[in-house]
Amino acid sequence: MTADESLEASQNRRLAFEWWWLIWIAAGACVFLSGALLGAVAGGGSAGEDDGFLHLLAPPFGGRDRVTVLAVGVDTSEGRGLADTIIALAVWPARGDLAALSIPRDSRVLVPGVGVMRINASHSYGDRPLTVRTVEMLLGSHFDYYVEVDVPGLVGLVDAVGGLDIEVEKRMYYRDRSQDLLIDLQPGLQHLNGEQAVGYVRFRHDATGDIGRIERQRKFLRVLARELLSPKKVGRIPSLVDAFLETVDTNLAVRDILSLKKLVEQVGPDGVLMETLPGHPRMIDGDSVLELDADQVQRTVDRVLWGQGTRVVVLNATDIKGLAARTAEFLAEQGYDILDVGNADRKTGSTLILDHRGQARRAQRVAGTLGMGVISAVPDGDNPADVTVILGGDFGSATR
Fold it and tell me: Which of 278, 306, 261, 272 is nearest to 99 (CA)?
């Protein structure tokens, strides 16, 4: 993988996280507010209303230990309804774990009842139900819930919050008469309406191409999420509710959405295991597609969506030759997945166990297996390892 490809892959992972992060924030804000307006949250009155309030206070997700959600972003700007963002999410509510698997839109899969094609086309043939069936068949996993976002519908959300203040990096001008699209933005801090903001997000006609577009999408999503949660927007609740209902379709209950929102805020983007389904680019009949390997798909699903296995990097921070290799072999025998073995940048007297997922459970297990280690949280959502072991002088002395 080239440096540019690595950078784009990293940015795509973060963008994917921020798409569903925005979904939870937007849904939590809008559904909760709409529930308040409609009396679903307010207690008092008839017995039926009291029951509704008690229902809201029931355990999220029916008290289940693990649930799955499929998030789909649909681009209907050209009338085709392509599912250009597909993210499978696993949630362990009790232990506070989140994992997300992004499925590239060009993945070549079997769409039930239609044929082999890019997975994003599944939505244009059978809307959300067919996309859900396609992903379930691909991953071998049932989804309890779905969230579908109409990407062009974000125009309405931006207008509903009164527009967004965005720092436009450069002069942006592009016209496509076939799509009735005009992007005409000046550099500097601009107050953009919905159409202008989505034009800012879609612009990619410069040297940075898709990489620059991804960065702009991230900036846009942060600003929009901040505005959606601003207490100053209370007066816009009715228009926010209308925009939400036109943009987001989900079978998540209010209490589930609020639980997810809280969990996302607690974990943060660097505490989430986020991966993209691996594949190999190919040209088939003149089309560029991503060819998936069934064994790789299954291993990735088991690790990400089922929480199986802990991926470990082992580094030697002592003068003892071969210590990291021997320790890695021992850990592999205990069932750990060893990603890399090498030398640390500097020597240390104490063995360190670095947790990259924001949850100490995996790091504690590794420390228990080794019989020592100071656990330190170093969240890093882009690090393929769950845990990094830095072997110090204490470990070297204990194993001589």
Answer: 272
150 CB-near residues (< 8 Å, 6+ apart): 74, 76, 246, 247, 248, 249
pLDDT digits (tens, 9 = 90+) for 334-347: 878 899 999 999 99
Residue reference for tokens 């109409």: 150
Q: Are 269 and 221 in contact (CB under 8 A)?
A: no
pTM over 0.90: no
Q: How far is CA 353 from CA 14, 278, 337, 375, 385, in A?
A: 25, 28, 15, 5, 12
Here the tokens at position 383 are: 């690090």
pLDDT tens digit string along 166-209?
Answer: 999 999 998 877 667 788 999 999 999 988 988 887 787 777 66
* Cα Rg, the chain, nearest whole Å: 23
The pLDDT > 70 percentage for the chain reads 76
Read off the amino acid at residue 30: C
Which pLDDT value is given to residue 137? 95
Can you say whether residue 294 is alpha, beta or left, with left for phi > 0 and alpha for psi between -120 and 50 degrees?
Answer: alpha
How confident is the model over 226-278, as pLDDT tens digits? 777 666 766 676 677 677 777 788 888 877 877 877 777 676 656 677 788 88
Q: Which amino acid is at 101?
A: L
Domains of the chain are: 3-304 (3.40.630.190), 311-399 (3.30.70.2390)
Pairing of strands 145-150, 67-75: parallel
Q: Are 274 and 102 in contact (CB under 8 A)?
A: yes
Backbone angles phi, psi at 306, to 5 degrees: -115, 0
Residues ≥6 apart with Cβ < 8 Å to 244: 26, 27, 30, 31, 34, 157
Look at residues 129, 136, 130, 120 and name the one whose alpha carbon lies nearest to residue 88.
136
Q: Find the Cα–Cα–Cα–Cα dihedral 57, 58, 61, 63, rounded to 10°.
A: 130
Long-range interactions of 48-57: CB distance < 8 A, separation 24+? 55/255, 56/254, 56/255, 57/255
Identify the CA nearest to 96 among candidates 71, 60, 72, 132: 60
